[in-house]
Design a protein that fits this description.
Length: about 180
């Protein structure tokens, strides 16, 4: 059990409140992981800025969820896997592709497979991708700039995944159906 508090808008440090309000507007609720991030106004402010940039980039929301779910599995963050499972399914990823990612396998969809493989490899190899790995991503129809954009998504999810592992926020009831263990 975590000793970190899950803050609400009322209980959060003053500088964290605007971000919590923004997340509530985006999701209709404040994810528990954001409630724990609110402990640090510096962290939650940096996270929201990166989160906004990632979601306004060149990838579709389904592609972003492929990346975020793969990152959560690769980093073994149980909260984030459940959360991004729900979002991936809502964005139209097939249940079979979601199940594959959750099991550490490659999704069947060619583009989602390329995204999942590149981000997983980048995390596992700490960014030391070789020409073959980058080339496989490009051959799937992506551009060179998107190789680097994958890293921005990985940075955002690293924040979430590490916070989840450290603070162990409770999983919201609506995500219980997607609970996952490493």
């Amino acid at each position: 059990m975590s000793t970190f508090q899950v803050y609400t808008i009322d209980s959060a440090p003053e500088q964290s409140k605007p971000v919590l309000r923004q997340l509530r507007q985006t999701f209709g609720f404040i994810p528990n992981i954001a409630g724990t991030m609110a402990e640090s106004p510096v962290l939650i402010s940096a996270f929201i800025q990166l989160f906004q940039k990632v979601h306004s980039g060149t990838f579709t929301e389904a592609q972003i969820q492929t990346l975020l779910l793969t990152n959560a599995v690769t980093n073994a963050c149980t909260w984030a896997v459940a959360f991004h499972t729900a979002l991936a399914l809502n964005e139209g990823l097939t249940p079979a592709d979601v199940d594959a990612i959750r099991a550490g396998r490659t999704p069947a969809d060619r583009k989602h497979a390329a995204l999942s493989t590149l981000t997983k490899t980048a995390i596992q190899k700490r960014g030391h991708l070789d020409e073959r790995e980058v080339g496989a991503f490009l051959e799937a129809g992506f551009r060179r700039d998107q190789v680097l954009e994958v890293l921005a998504v990985a940075a955002a999810s690293t924040i979430t995944n590490y916070v989840g592992s450290i603070t162990q926020p409770p999983l919201e009831e609506q995500f219980q159906v997607h609970a996952w263990t490493a």
